[in-house]
Amino acid sequence: MPGNRSAFNAAIKKGHNAAWDGQWKKAADEYRRALGEFPEEVSVRASLAHALEELGQWENAFHEYQQLAKMQPRDPVPVARMAVLLEKLKRPAEAAGAYLQVAELYLSTKLSAKAVEAWRRASELEPDRTDLHLKLAETYARGGQFAAAATEHIALARIYKKRGEDSKALNAARQAQTLDPRNSAARVMIEDAERMESAKSASLASPMGAAEKAALSRLAENLFEEPAAGPKDGADEQRHPTERPAISQIEVDALIAHAVDAQMHHRVGEAIEAYRKLLAAGIARPEVKFNLGLLYFETMRYDEAVAFLAETTTDHSLALASHYALGQCYRAQGKMDAAVEHFLQVVKIVDLGSVRREQADDLISVYEGLAESYAAKGDRAEAEKFSQALEDFLNSKGWEDKVQQVRRHLEALHTTDEQTSLAEVIEMPDSDKVLEALALSQEYMRREKLGAAAEECYHAIQLAPNYLPAHIRLAEIMVKQDRLEEASFKYQTLAELYMTRADLKRAETMYRHALAVMTDDVGMRSRLIDLLVQQARNEDALEQYLILGDTYARLGQAARANEKFTEGARLATRANITSPVALSLRHRWGETRLRQGDFKGALGIFQEIRQQSPDDERAHFYIVDLEFRLNQAPAALRDLEDLLTRYRDRREPQKVTAVLEALAQNYPSEQGLALRLADNYLALGAKDKAVTVLDGLGETLLSAGNKPAAAQVIRRIIELQPTQVEDYEKLLQDMGE
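Above: the chain sequence. Below: its structure as tokens.
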């Protein structure tokens, strides 16, 4: 329904007057009143956002500008205000992202100067974002501002220098010098970078450098192969079946030779052009795509680099370098989540190559947990720290040997079912010293010198407080020292830390270790249940509910036991689980209700069990027993007859006798029970037992004043002709029957 226009206009007028007088709270109240009538009025929402900003209510103002941005998606002003507010709220990464949106909006309206200003502000907030400096450099160069463009390339060179990416730093400095030959900073950086690149070129330490050399070699080798009638070394394998090469084999070889030579001699533009011609001709070899991706990466054309490198991650010989280059591309673009995902793939490939086949599945699971952990945390600084540590490691001399050395250390320390990943070691400071301390700790444990083992653990923790395997080892030592409460607390703390890292598998392992130490810790078991339910592992959760309820029952806390059995049974119902564990839970639930005296509630539970599991004899017996307790004798006898018929059909007379004896003992006045028990004894040939049962029933009926029923029972005894038949005949006469 449309709002009240008069009320709207009155509120607007009061709001504007208040704003004019600097009464921002009153202005905001009036603007809200106006929006209550017409929520889609853009100008009023803008006024409200401004008033809230003046009041210092930045979060609320930000929300209003968000609404404005949705209402006017092509207007850069609301997004610009959002960026300013994000700065005030100390959220620089988000502010930088908002400024990037502002720049794109200004570009769409041909306001390039304003776009440049937005990019500049974003680059000030996130100075290590290479994509921002690249955008600025390109824009300045197109506008003829070559000195400004050179300055941005110098900024890029410094970022790469700081990251240890010397070849990219050198390339950026060269571009700066091309744009501004008099730029002294560019000249100095080029001289320094060339010296460092020259020193490194002999080793080709990084995976990317080694893969590039291998890819170039494979392409060069292709030139010396004899022509064949079929596809040549996979060159045609990726062409579309209906396509034909656009050029001859001689021209293909010439292009490959030119591309390889240009790339090796750092003529990047020529190499890119040659590779593009090869792809256009249908030569889609992995080496061509990989080298083209590297060249685009080197020239900071990251989107194009990503497109080609993503196609080579499945090639066994290029996968490691492709993931590594993709990680660097995404990092340069400020997309740290994607960067970490690919960097983790790099370490996983390296690590899996160093373990035994039977360990691979566990290790893969560890890396999946790490990836989920980084994605869940969304911590840009943590992701940047990890990616930098990885780059430093993979650019170090002899990193392949270090991998084997680290893996040997980890294998020596491996005492539980949990694998430790290379990734966790790479990002750890003083990793050599930490692993050495843990190795000593293990040796002391082997010699039963637990005090010394603990000291080495404390030393490792002091060096790397966040390296959780050291804490796990300390907890193991505490258990051996019989410091069970401390060990349990340590495991619990570790579980919570793994939870914050979103590593649910390891969190579960720590909870289980803690419960192995302190079995009756109901709080810990409850947290384990929550963790299992969170992962939809309902069957495992039901097992823990069963243990938890039994624990409360053993501790004499019947109400809490009932509560946990109830929760478990309801979970089983929601998840439609009818396993033995679920059945046991429902039984415990019913039995707890029974012990609490809630006979009606217990009966309902056991009836539900019988409905789900018709063959459950235990539930069937409880139903009969509870119906007698609740004075529902006709129903009890019907259900009893069903149970007895089942036993008779299966030829299990001992069960018939046991059930009837138990019920008759509990409910001696129930005539139907006694008669059935007597008939059962007679069928088994135990006449004396039948007489005893009937005699007891007769006495019970006489005591209750029910002479007719008692007489009927006595006549039944006389028919059986027991030894004392005369006594029963005389009793019947005395009764006047």
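The chain has 39 helices and no strands.
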